[in-house]
Amino acid sequence: MIQDAAHAVGTEFRGKRIGSDGVTACFSFHPIKNITTGEGGMITTGSDELAEKFRLLRFHGVNRDAWSRYGNVDSPRYETVTPGWKYGLTDLQAALGIHQLAKLNGFIERRRRLAELYHEQLAGIDGVRPLGRAVGTSRHAWHLLSSRLKPTGSDVIVIGSCN
Questions:
Q1: Per-residue pLDDT for 69 more than 60?
Q2: What is the distance in angstroms between the CA of the first residue and the CA of the last residue of the chain?
Q3: Which of 16, 33, 53, 86 is labelled catalytic?
C-alpha cells in the first residue's frame, strides 16, 4: 500500500506523523502545499527493498549516483539497470525545502488558527457545515478546508484553502 500524503506533511494520526510508521507515503512539495521546494516531492518507506528501487528509478535507473561515480573511486563507470525517470531535486530546491521544513510547525499552527476561524464563522450559516477531522487525527495539516453545503435539497462539497 502507498499512502497519498500529498496534503499531509506534518499531519499526525493516532500520535504518529504520516510517513513515519514504515508505510510507504508520497508527499508533494508543489508551491501551494504546506512546505515547498518549488516543485517535487518525497517518498518515505520502511522497506529497504523499495527504498533502493526508488533510488534507482529517480535517476534514469542508473546504479551509481554522481557522488559515488566521481568521488574517490577507481572508475566513474555506471550501468542503467532499469528504465527510470529524472525525479531528483536540485540542490537549490533541497536547500529551500530544508528551510521550509524548519518552519513547518509554525505554518501548520497558522493554518490551524485559520481553520478554527473558518469553523467559527461558518457555524452560524444555515446549510454550511465544515467537514471535521478524520477520527484518530491528532494533528491536522489543514492544507485544505472542506465544507458541505446543503442548498435546496442537494449536497455540494466545497474545498477551500487555509493559506
A1: no
A2: 30
A3: 33
